[in-house]
Specification:
MFS_trans_sf, 17 helices, MFS_dom, membrane, MFS transporter, single chain, mainly alpha, globular, transport
């Protein structure tokens, strides 16, 4: 591409340095793509059965407490036992729950209750898998390649979230829910190959038996790790006030039009931004001040989410509306394009923040407590959007669909700017001398 040098593109060195990492990345990417099919399909399934946006938002909320417990306990398991075995067992639970979704859909036996229960099981098991895999990565690669590995994770997220939701919308619209869940079951098999071929990965240093003392030990470390603690808080703020995904099914029907296809396209736009920012992440890997990088990325994220809310406000006011108004069959094309651009910027900014946050976690945290800290990290990353789904669902039900993202963007910008200015140690963080 003219004008772009090789060092602007993503660094593929982790693949060459560690074939085990490469296999795990491929398995995680394919299984993640299938997981996104199921996530979006369940959202659409519940909306089809209830017609209620609040019911859709409650899918995420229902899984919050089990996911928190599983993430914390999974981190303790990863710090006490072979991380390869822990991840394999948790992945098996995820596989079985997805298989049950497919069986129920093929038999016409699905219900809102079953969709909720199996989604909760899936979320809990996935939190264990993610916490364990994150603790595995620093054992497969040298520290100087961890930023590149985090950027490759952005490619994974980009592929699975960009293709997954769009494909889910198309599959649900043209083939139904049973086929969508079944494809996830098949794709998930690749994760087992990636995990099975790993070497034994017992934690280094002194291990602590899973339980309250292990959790307290991890919390004591976190209490002394102000940089790690603040990045958790910043991410919770961004995900709580800047996650409008639970609103997408209703936006596709009531605001922008297009129904399930619009739901998939809007979700895919976030991933497109993440994918592109990872593809051109070469300069990101050379940034040393990760605290400043996190701050600036989240501020851009908040601005993009606020812009998305403004687009929805314009649509609600009738701007560029098709004749007869937008509905499941008629799309407000100009504002849909604007919404896609805003969400793509949000996805890119969130991914850049994630690269810095992940590198800070994996570089600054000792291996002996890395599983527990990754468990807490996964709870933050996955729990924040669930709280955000509740915020968006309740506020949208009480007001309008454009209010949560527009208000949330302003809240994110204000809170993040204040908290980082009050933390000079975080702003001074140097990747060459990582201090938790």
């Amino acid at each position: 591409m003219p004008g772009l040098k090789r060092h602007h593109f993503i660094d593929l060195s982790p693949f060459r340095a560690s074939p085990a990492f490469a296999r795990l990345w491929i398995g995680s990417t394919l299984s993640g793509l299938g997981g996104q099919l199921t996530i979006v399909a369940v959202m659409l399934h519940v909306y089809a059965l209830t017609g209620d946006t609040f019911a859709v938002s409650m899918i995420a909320v229902a899984g919050l407490l089990p996911m928190i417990a599983a993430g914390l306990y999974g981190g303790m398991l990863a710090d006490a036992f072979d991380r390869r075995i822990v991840a394999l067992i948790a992945a098996t639970v995820t596989f079985v729950s997805t298989l049950l979704l497919a069986v129920l859909a093929w038999g016409g036996l699905e219900s809102v209750a079953w969709l909720y229960v199996l989604s909760v099981v899936n979320a809990a098991a996935n939190s264990v898998v993610l916490a364990t895999k994150s603790a595995i990565t620093p054992r497969l690669l040298p520290r100087d390649l961890l930023p590149a590995a985090a950027a490759l994770q952005g490619i994974t997220v980009g592929i699975m979230v960009m293709a997954g939701p769009a494909l889910a919308g198309i599959l649900v619209a043209f083939t139904g829910y049973a086929w969508t869940y079944t494809i996830d079951v098949v794709l998930m098999l690749s994760l087992f190959l990636g995990l099975w071929t790993l070497p034994a990965l017992r934690p280094e240093g002194v291990t602590v038996r899973p339980g309250l003392e292990s959790l307290r030990d991890g919390m004591r470390f976190l209490k002394s790790a102000s940089n790690i603690r603040l990045q958790y808080v910043l991410d919770i703020i961004a995900m709580t006030f800047g996650q409008p995904i639970a609103l997408f099914p209703a936006i596709g029907v009531l605001v922008l039009g297009g129904g399930p296809v619009t739901t998939g396209v809007l979700t895919a736009a976030i991933a497109l931004g993440a994918f592109l920012s990872s593809l051109f992440s070469g300069p990101v890997g050379r940034v040393r001040r990760h605290g400043v990088g996190i701050e600036r990325a989240i501020l851009v994220y908040g601005a993009a989410i606020g812009l998305f809310g403004a687009v929805l406000l314009a649509a609600a006011a009738g701007w560029f509306a098709p004749p007869g108004g937008a509905d499941a069959d008629a799309v407000n094309v100009p504002l849909l394009v604007a919404a896609i651009l805003a969400l793509a910027v949000a996805g890119a900014a969130d991914n850049v923040s994630a690269i810095f946050r992940s590198t800070m976690m994996q570089s600054a945290v000792p291996d002996a407590v890395r599983g527990r800290l990754q468990g807490i990290f996964i709870v933050v990353v996955a729990g924040g959007p669930r709280v955000g789904a509740l915020y968006a669902g309740v506020l949208a039900t009480a007001t309008a669909l454009w209010v949560p993202p527009l208000l949330g963007g302003f809240v994110i910008i204000g809170l993040v700017a204040i908290l980082v200015r009050l933390s000079p140690r975080f702003r001074a963080y140097d990747a060459l001398h990582p201090v938790p």
